Amino acid sequence: MKLYYNPASPFVRKVLVVAAECGIADQIEKEEIALTPVNSHAPLNSENPLGKIPSLLLANNESLYDSRVICEYIDALADGGLFPPNGSARWTALRRQATADGFCDAAVLVRYEGFVRPSEKQWPDWAEAQLKKCRRAIDVLEKDSASFGDTVDIGTLSVAVALGYFDFRNDEEAWRNNAPNLAKWYEGFALRPSLVKTQPV
Ligand code: BEZ
Questions:
Q1: Of these four, 2, 10, 189, 191, which has the most CB atoms within 10 Å of its CB?
Q2: Distances (CA, A) of 165 to 81, 85, 160
Q3: pLDDT for position 164
């Protein structure tokens, strides 16, 4: 399997974390590409019309995207048990994943606004609105973290990846001051080898 990847992308990291948790990280060959919303990559475009990473090329030449589909594929392949099959555990895990992924979407847009968009075209109110989404997600996760316990599934792994990306690109936010319970949970959870090995660079 070949994964188009960039080590800074939180969505790529989520895939690598899931692969590590499922014990199949060594089956994934990685091809690093540098992407922005305005520079495309022809080989990737031919496999994923959206031209986005992560995108996984399978041995039978089929492609899978986006990160949610790839994570579910890896989990099914390895019988990883990271997607609760039914009941409230499933919907809780998927909601946490959706919150974390939306948080990453907003944080990545802030990054693009500040570092990719030409300064004369930047719109500070728009970037601030994206940051507010991140902060609201943290507020919700702070409340939710009371019930994280020692759960390791697609929900909690996605939350850890989102917080890792926020620390990586928005460390001035000091989110821990407003989310002490979430911060305490993250301090321990971030020590999982799957997260340590995949820290963004
Ligand atoms: C980043 O540099 O923050 C980044 C790179 C690739 C995808 C998303 C974010």
A1: 10
A2: 25, 28, 9
A3: 98
Q: What is the Cα 148 distance to its own chain's centre? A: 18
> Which pLDDT does position 37 carry in this prediction?
84
Q: What is the pLDDT of residues 148-163, one digit of tens each?
A: 999 999 999 999 999 9
Instruction: Verify whether ligand 1 is closer than 6 Å to residue 13 (CB atom).
Output: no
Nearest CA to ligand 1 atom 8: 9
Q: What angle do CA 29, 109, 97 make, to 5 degrees?
A: 60
64-98 pLDDT per residue, tens:
999 999 999 999 999 999 999 999 999 999 999 99
Ligand 1 atom closest to residue 168's alpha carbon, by position in its atom list: 3
108 lines ligand 1 (CB under 6 A): yes
Tell me how far apart the alpha carbons of residues 5 and 22 are, in angstroms, rounded to a whole number: 19
Distant-in-sequence, close-in-space partners of 126: CB < 8 Å, separation ≥ 6? 113
In angstroms, rounded to a whole number, what is the distance separating the alpha carbons of residues 96 and 117? 30
In total, the chain counts a number of residues equal to: 201
Would the CB of 52 count as within 6 Å of ligand 1? no
- Domains of the chain (ranges, CATH numbers): 2-78 (3.40.30.10), 87-192 (1.20.1050.10)
Residue 192 and residue 186 in contact, taking contact as beta carbons nearer than 8 Å: no
137 lines ligand 1 (CB under 6 A): no
